[in-house]
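User: Here's a chain of 463 residues. Predict its fold as tokens.
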Amino acid sequence: MRPSCYLNAVEIGDGNSLLYNGFSMSIDVVPSEIAHGLVSSDDGGDFSFLMPVEKEHLVRRGHLTTLTVAEEREEMKQLARAAAKSNVGSNRQPFSRRMITFILSYQCNLSCSYCYQKEIRKTSGTSSMDEAFVDDFFGNCLDKLLPRGLGEHPSFLLYGGEPLLPGNRGAIERILCYAKKYGSVVSTVTNAVTLPGMLDLIGPEKGKINNVQVTLDGGQMFHDQQRFSQSGGPTFEQTILALRELMKAGTNAVIRIHLHPDKLESARLLVEYLEQEKILGHDRVKAYFWSTEDLHSKALSPREYELFCKLFQDVAFKQNSLPTAHFEFLEQIMDMKTARSRPVRRHCDICVAGLHCVVDSLGDIYECIDDAGHKDRRVGILAGGEVEFLKPGENSGKLHIHDKPECLECSIALFCGGGCANRLKLQEDSPSASFCLQIKEFVGLTFKTYFLLKNNRQNDAKR
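Assistant: Prediction complete.
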């Protein structure tokens, strides 16, 4: 008897922990001393600290097993392969979104220190999407790119460079006209500096930009060191002003809070500021954390990791929702009653072919925003009202976790979906490995925080 290779634990307070198993997908509340004893036990360890009924329950839930490590790894591989196949059926439904991302231009009015598009701008030129391009796209190409019969309207994302540059206004207005015709939701990711000049195009109504995401890198001083104009000017106050305007307009605003290792104190200052200014907690504003670098617990000091956990939970409770991107799926797992219809995790929409594509101002088509601008990663070209699909290049297949040895050994692989294959390809061109960043810590914190949020909601309902 030994603990499962896929056993994880996170403390939830009051002397209890959540055991969550990445193979059986079982989640149990247990005393923390039991959780610590299991996680720290070796193969064939002493389980005398367990009562017989506890041991029996843990075996039934898959937290304890008599399988060898090799046998459990092989079963995991078979399970992952079967789960990937079943994704074609009902389990695919949560990801059946149809979205077109328009890269209106690769040009930007900022010069952020960590921008991943800097090199792309050197080769992409100054081309911007115009009204004629948009009309041609919707008149001749949209139906060739989106699958039919999904029973829902397409959604559109405006992206860049910076999508809300004044020179993009004509194309935006035309896209919004078509969005109103289709009853579609339109979102944008913007640095918000030029947003005040676009306020007439933003609002909750159809035919307007309904959701706006902005980015903050921490408190004002650190943010302005990271995100600054082409001339070196600060942007923090402009971003906050834009958020206030969005709140007045009744538009959904999303704040992406970047986490930088060794700079988490600045993130704390930002969260405090957003609370004081009554931005965080507003019913139209949601915040989520995103790491710019590898942010696992081993890379942080104990104090930094404790601060990270506190920030995560504080934001969740303030806005009554999880401060994560791509992890809503974990709520489904927490609410599962049985594992018969096991959900299947995909890192994002590109892992389900045909349900999302990126169209840039040059007429190139990509599956992922991270690929955009890298012409060798195009999947198609728009030309004269036609769509020419290109043959997949080497290593272009979307490998699932059963193809990735690193993932098969990871205790949360079925929860995270294998990480971002495209980010990995851009850096190492090795899609059979993994690109994880903060995944493991975010999974544990997400489970913990969702559990606590759910308990709070239930307690509030009883009052």
